[in-house]
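Quick illustration, no need to memorize.
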Amino acid sequence: MDKTEEKTDWGIVYRYIAKNYRYALYMYDDDPKTIYLSNVRVEPDARQQGLGRSILFMAEREAKKRKADTICLKVLKEGWVRDWYARHGYSEFSEDEDPKFIWMKHEIK
């Protein structure tokens, strides 16, 4: 897996790219206790093999390593993805400014 780290004027972006999946984690300087999971993609021919769960596990491990206590993400309100995150411990906590999306979070123990 390729991992890149980019320092920005607002925080840090960690990008993870493998053959069959990719995702990004964002940490904002003004909120070091929260990591944002974004740009999650599992290639169609690699789905139903547990890679999505693995991404959530890796994101949580990285959050713990950076002493964050919450992972947040934005997801479409309609469709299976919202339910999938809910089954994996994410709960809704805020509407998005775009009414098609909802914010979800997972508290890290």
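The first strand starts at residue 2 and ends at 7.
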